[in-house]
Amino acid sequence: MTAPDVKSLFSLRGRVAIVTGGSRGLGLAIARGFAASGAKVVVASRSVDACAAAADTIRAEGGDVLGVPCHLGEPAQIEALVDATVAHFGGIDCVVNNAATPLRTTLTDFDMALWRKSLDVNLTGPLLLVRAALPHLDASDTATVINVLSVGGLRGSMSLLGYGSAKAALRHATEVLAAELAPRNIRVNAIAPGPFATKMLTSGDATLSDTAAADTLLGRVGEPDEIIGAAIYLASAASSYVTGSVLLVDGGQLA
């Protein structure tokens, strides 16, 4: 392979990607990275204002972007997200299921409403989005699905019973979907982030961030832009022989 051939492996030029939870944190970093790699990006988030602000940021950087408000716990809004994407860009090549809600519940303080909401947003919503996008992924020659998990779904995490269980189930679903959709030439993979400097981690007690950093081999939390390489790899031709895999981006937390 020549140098241009290798470079082209990581190009997303001309592809249409939906990134849920794309208005901040890891989702915004992925959306910005995809746009910089040539993709047409749809940023989905519950907040109308947050969607607009993220789209403005990406547009100012030269990206082709559309902001679409969407709550992953509402099936009708998921269908509307797919319809808006196809109406604006003409198709869908990649779905990034990044939106999540880290609702805290334990067995002793079990809250049925929080449990159901966690499953709706963290597990059911991503599955419904892939299902809604499926006819358009079928029509793509480069179809990919990327589910954003968490190390909290790969090992037990105190007080994250709902969130961790949903993410663990999404990991299993990633493998099932990879098997089901492989004959349709749709690759399905996942990224499992460790501690990153996002609102989910930094909005609490500062000791939480320090503890998370000490739990990694690299001794620090990740910066949001450090997720971009993994996402572009799984969305691009660079990973053309990869499906059903989980890529850890955790600073060595689970090593």
Automatic annotation (TrEMBL):
InterPro entries: NAD(P)-bd_dom_sf, SDR_fam, Sec_Metab_Biosynth_SDR. Pfam families: adh_short_C2. Keywords: NADP, Oxidoreductase. One of its GO terms (molecular function) is oxidoreductase activity. SUPFAM superfamilies: NAD(P)-binding Rossmann-fold domains (SSF51735). The keyword Transmembrane helix does not apply. NCBIfam families: PRK07231.1 (NF005559). Belongs to the short-chain dehydrogenases/reductases (SDR) family. PANTHER family: 7-ALPHA-HYDROXYSTEROID DEHYDROGENASE (PTHR43618), 7ALPHA-HYDROXYSTEROID DEHYDROGENASE (PTHR43618:SF8). This is Unannotated protein. It comes from freshwater metagenome.
